[in-house]
Amino acid sequence: MNDCEIKLTNIIASYIKQYIKPIILFIIFVIVFCVVFSLYDLELEAILYSAILCIFIGAISICINFIDYYKKHIKLYNLQNEISLSLENLPTPKNLIEGDYTNLILNINKDYKNYISKSDIAKTDMLDYYTMWVHQIKTPISAMKLLIQTSESEISGDLSSELFKIEQYVEMVLSYIRLDNSGNDFVIKEYNLDDIVRQAIRKYAPLFIRKKIALDFQNTNCKALTDEKWLVFVIEQLLSNAIKYTNKGKISIYSLEDKKLVIEDTGIGIAEEDIPRIFEKGFTGYNGRTDKKATGLGLYLCKKIMSKLSHRISIESEIGVGTKVILDLSMINLNVE
Fold it and tell me: Quick check: pTM over 0.70?
């Protein structure tokens, strides 16, 4: 039995359940009709003929009513995906109760639209505020960087490092805000992958030097169809995590076949049970609970950005050995600019 047959069977069962009382009442009337005729000693043939005629008329009436019931059900079923947009195609109510239900649905839909409208306005105002705040906070950050650079204090290095972290968190907030509205922000074309990687490396060079972590960057010598700005952000986030959780050893960046970029570190690694959830929003895992400073947004944003770019990201890790992040840039399905 296919899905259509099952659905029709369910509709028939629902119809019978709804109209079972009138159907039983009709059957009782036919029985009473036959009994009364039999009491007057009418011929059996006449009684049967009358009963069959009543059943025939009743069956036609039920079929017509069922067809109307079926059409109304299909119309309402098809409206389920459109009801949030318009209720103009609701079936016309045929009695007072159906009219009450229709009015109730219309009122609920009206309240829902008002709620959504207010919610959208509030969300827009909040995004505008945070966007403005992010841009405004960049001014004092730049001023502080200039003051630190001109200072000869012994703690200038520590201050510079902490200020760099603040700057990264601000950039993360701005990217988080922009990401859901980034449809018009993408510039998809072929880029030299080595140039993109070098941008991220230059930005984090001071941290490599400060933590005395070696960098092994092997030229990929390949091009990728992607968005430069967003892919740089992803690589920066991955480098940030690698540096944060690597106390000694090195971080390697190299390519595999089919345009796969690998960022591998010799850090503390990720617990096996945490790996399936590592890209969830707000999930920090064992390392995050130990570090107490993890936001659980970095890898979430990386995953979301890679998905929007039709790329893939995967992680392999072992506690005490290190972590390997693989960026698959070959899955893109977009037109070149």
Answer: no
